[in-house]
Amino acid sequence: MKNLIVFLMLVLSTSTINAQQIRTSSSATITFFSSTIVEDIEAKSASATSAFDVVSGNLLFRVKNTSFQFPKKLMQEHFNENYMESDTYPLSDFKGKISPLPDFTKDGTYTATATGNLNIHGVTKTYTAPVTFTITGGNITAKTVFRVRISDHGIKVPALVFKNIAEFVEVRVVTTYLSKNN
Amino acid sequence: MKQHTYFLYSLLILPAILFTTVQASAQDDLEKAIPIIKTTHEKVSATFKSTKLINGHTNETIYKNEMDFKVDHRFGDIAGSNGGLRQFFGLDQSTDVRIGFDYGLSDRVTVGLARAKGATAVQQLYELSIKYRLLEQTTDDHIPFAITFFGSNTIAAIHASDDPTSATAYRNLGDRTNYVSQLIIARKMSPGFSFSLTPSYLHRNFTTYRDQNELFALGAGARAKLSKRVALVIDYFLPFRNTADKAYLEKVNNVKFYNPLGVGLEMETGGHIFHLNFTNAAAIEEMQFIPSTTSSWLKGQYRWGFSISRRFSFNHTKKQVETGT
């Protein structure tokens, strides 16, 4: 009986350690590209936040829509006012899981898949995207590229600017989770 | 002994419960761990969509390296003695036309050059203007409202009149010059509603006999969104005239002064903004519609007007070179 208690205590303490295995970043970069014959649009946010559980593989990303910077400010205004409706939907987020999980203690480059729910403009859709992990000295860098069909998220493009905004937008995410020892 | 076992049993249960809680809340742990997004006095954007409501200016300027090309048009009276079917509800006439170019020196400073026909005797107007954002409203109400300064200098190029009591009996370039200063105080109350108050000061170097060279006025305007791209806009100006001079001018010229009121629809698509409006003011320039509006809504002397604004950006997006990761 005593052994059982010890065992359960151990299990409990392991799960407590799990909680400490969450790596975070507050400077993840998210870039998106819309490319048409008429116009290329690129916007970038370098202040997305993320939390990643390196043991369970659970992953969370969050970005403030108004943090996306456009080379043309009027475009940025239109992005927030007319398309993302950032007053109503200020945040976009992704909740998912990474599998298979690489060995984060060994330096190297690994590929895995992220599957989860992406919420943009109040509409959630399931996505699967390839992720590349680069591990150097305990620091984890994760990169991914995937495509979002803007109409999937209830974002309407008026006929007049239909040729300026692509149907599919390419999204790139780069984030570095620094080692806890740093 | 039995009690002892019971105690041990409960000891077993407790960590088991805790363990399942931890497992179930894996996403909650991430929620707790994720850094909070810092927002430091984020500026409110698009209090108004255009730099003008109908007659008056909004607090908005254009962004750096942008050009705003704007055409304003006012037709003749829709109804009343000068309107109706004979004048095709005012469409046969144009009381004023203005063509303007604005340029964004920075996100806060816009300079403009415009040419307007002019609706009173003072015609062939050239306007130089500057708009400067003094304060910008923030989303956290650290700054609860926006203040923008608007200043313009309008020169009338019309041939000088020989009648010394005329508004155009100019002797030199100085006489032809008019100044307008406004402070536009605006607040975006909600994503769909904004309003503004505009204390204004006008100085006309030369006016008709007994008209005021200096005039204070207060403007008010609002914008209410009807849909994502269509909004209802309204603005009004209240000039503080000297009563004796006003009565004299009304008697001599057989006119009455009215306060300009405009209502309209604003439609926005990409870089274009269209305004369809109705206003009793015949003129477009501040130095004319504030002191010299002599047409009345109640007499059918309101007119259809429109403005078209097209914004061009000279900040070029760089062509995408990299592909994939």
From TrEMBL, chain A:
Domain (Lipid/polyisoprenoid-binding YceI-like) ranges: 28-174
Keyword Nucleus (UniProt): no
Pfam families cross-referenced by the UniProt entry: YceI
UniProt entry tagged with the keyword Lipid biosynthesis: no
Keyword line: Signal
InterPro entries (alphabetical): Lipid/polyisoprenoid-bd_YceI, TTHA0802/YceI-like_sf
Matching Gene3D superfamilies: Lipid/polyisoprenoid-binding, YceI-like
Position of the signal peptide: 1-19
Protein name per its UniProtKB record: YceI-like domain-containing protein
Organism this protein belongs to: Pedobacter duraquae
UniProtKB/TrEMBL annotation, chain B:
Signal peptide as annotated in the record: 1-26
Domain DUF5777: 48-312
Pfam families: DUF5777
Keywords: Signal
UniProt-listed InterPro entries: DUF5777 (IPR045916)
The name this protein goes by in its record: DUF5777 domain-containing protein
Top-level taxonomy: Bacteria, Pseudomonadati, Bacteroidota, Sphingobacteriia, Sphingobacteriales
